[in-house]
Write a structure and sequence with these properties.
With about 575 residues, the chain is of the alpha+beta class. It has 15 helices and 22 strands.
Length: about 575
Amino acid sequence: MSVADVRGADPGDGRISTPSAARTPAWSAAAGVTPALPPLASDHAPAAPDWSEVVEHFREGLIVCDADGVVRHLSPVAERLLPEVVLGEVLAVAGVDALLGGDPVEITHHGRRLRARQVPLSAARRCWYVEDVTESVSRADALLAERARSAFLAVVGEKLGNPLHPDRAAAAVVRLAVPTVADVAVLVLAPRSGRARWWRAVRGDDEAPTVDSGVLAATELPAAIEEGLAGTEPHTLDWLVEQTVEAGWLPGLAAAETSVRVVPLPGRDEPAGVLLVARRSTRWYDEADIDLVRAFAARGGAALTTAVLYRDQAEVADTLQASLLPVEPVAATGVQWGTAYRPAQAGLRIGGDFYGSHRLADGGSVFFLGDVSGKGVEAAVFTGQLRQCLQALHRVESQPARLLKLLNDALLETTQAHGQGRFATMVLGVVRPHGDGSLTLTMAGGGHLPPLVLRASGEVEVVPLTGMLIGVVPDPRIGEVTVRLAPGETCLLYSDGVTEARGGRRGDEQFGAERLLHAVDGCHRMPAPALAERVEQVTCDWLAHGDHDDIAVLALRATGTAHRPARHLHAVPSPAGGEHDRRGAHA
C-alpha cells in the first residue's frame, strides 16, 4: 500500500494528503492498530513515517482492492500466503473463491491453514486480512485430540474397573475398542491346556458393536498372534491381514483396504493375551494411534490380570469354605437328624460353630456340636482342625469322655505350637439303636450348654451335663451322662448363639434359656429337621436382623424303625387246594 493510500489520498493521483477526521477510524479499524498520525506539516514538524514499512511488519497479510475489485496494494505477507493474487489485477482472477464473499473464512491453501476477514474502507474500497493459523490450529487440534484420548482412557479405566470375571473383562475390552481405535477388535487370551479363547467386537451400522467369542486350538493361531503372546509387537503385518481376512476374523473388511495392528496385553509374568485392532485404510494407524492402542492394551491387560487373579482367589476361597462348612450328619439306623446353621458373617458362610457325626463299626454313631472362641475365618479354620482331629480320634476311641480328653490333648498341642490360645465348648456323644426302636445316648460335656430332651409326653427335660472348656488345661473335668430316647422322642443340641441372641423391644435383651424352653414346648411331634429350623427361626425373629453370634442347632430323633422285622406275604389257600395254592405258598 502506498503512503498516499494509507493517508487517505485517492489511489490514482499519488499525492499525500493529511487524513481527515472521518477517515482515520476507518484505517485504524482496518489495520487493526491505532497509529499515531503526524501533526500538520510545518517547518519544525518531523517527517511523516513511511506507512508501507509499518504494514510490512504486520502479522497478517493485507490485500486492498478498489471499488472495481482491482488489487491496489499487496503486502509481502499476503504475497507469500496467496501467490495467485497479483498487484494491479482483478482479485477474482486469482481463483481464490473464499475471498469473494464478505464473511470471515478459514481455508486450507498450499498445505497451510489460512484465516481471512474482510473490512470495508472508504470510497467502496475493501481490505482483506489474511493470517496463517496453521501452527495455532495444529496445536489446538493436538490439544483436542489429547483431551479426547485422555477422556477415552479415563472411560476405559472406569469401565474396566468393574468386571471381576475374565470372560466379562475380555468382552468389555473389545467392546470399548470399537469404534474409537478399531472397526474390528479381536482379543485372544493366552492358551490354557492347548486351547485359546477369543472375543471379537465388530462395528455396527448404529455404532453399537456386536460381540462374539469362541475357542481355537493353540496350533491354529497366526504367527503374529504367537509373537504377541510371547511379549513382542509384530511389525510385518501385510500377510497377517490376508490370513485374518481369509480366516473370517475381520468381517466386513477387505484385505486391500485394511490396516491392522497387534499389541500384547501386559500380565503379571507374561502377556495376559493379545489385542488385534483393524480398520479401513481411510484411517491408517499413525504413531499417535498406536500409542493410544498401547495405552488401551495396558489398561485391558491390567483388567484381565485382576479378573484372573480374582477368579483364582475365588476358586480357592470357595474350596476352602466348602471344606470348613459344617458337614451334615451321616445317616444312622433309627436316627433322624435335623440341623440348622447361620454364621455371624453371612457373606463368609463359615464361622466358629460346627456339628457332625461319624459312623462306628458296631452300628452306632459319634455325634457332636461345638463352638470355638471367636468368629469369622480364623474361627472357621479352628473348627476345621477340631473336625479333622475328631475324624481321626474316633477310630481309636469311642467312649465319649475319653474321646473328649484325647481331643483336648490334641488341641492343646496344636494351639501351643501356633500360639493361638483358642478354646472350644462341645457336647460329644455316642448314639446306639435298640431293637425296640429306642436310642441310647451317652454324652460328654466340655463346657457347653446342656442339651434338651423332648419326651413323647410333651415334657421338655434339661440334661444335667457339665464339664470344662476344651483346649485350656491338660486334664479337664469332663462330665458324662446317658439318656434313653423312646421312639418319637428328640434330643436337641444348640450353641450359645441361640440363648445369647440379643433383641426384643430394646434390642439388647438376651433370648435366654427360658424362652428357648418355651419355644420348643409342644414341638415333641415335630420331625428333627423341622424342630431345628424352628429354633433357628425364633432366634432370628428375636434378633430382628441385628448382629448375632454364630448359630448352630443339631437335633436327633428316635424314629422307632431300628431292626424292624421283615414283612412277608402269605397266600390264602383256596377251597380246591390246587396248583394255585402251591404257587401262592411259594410267593
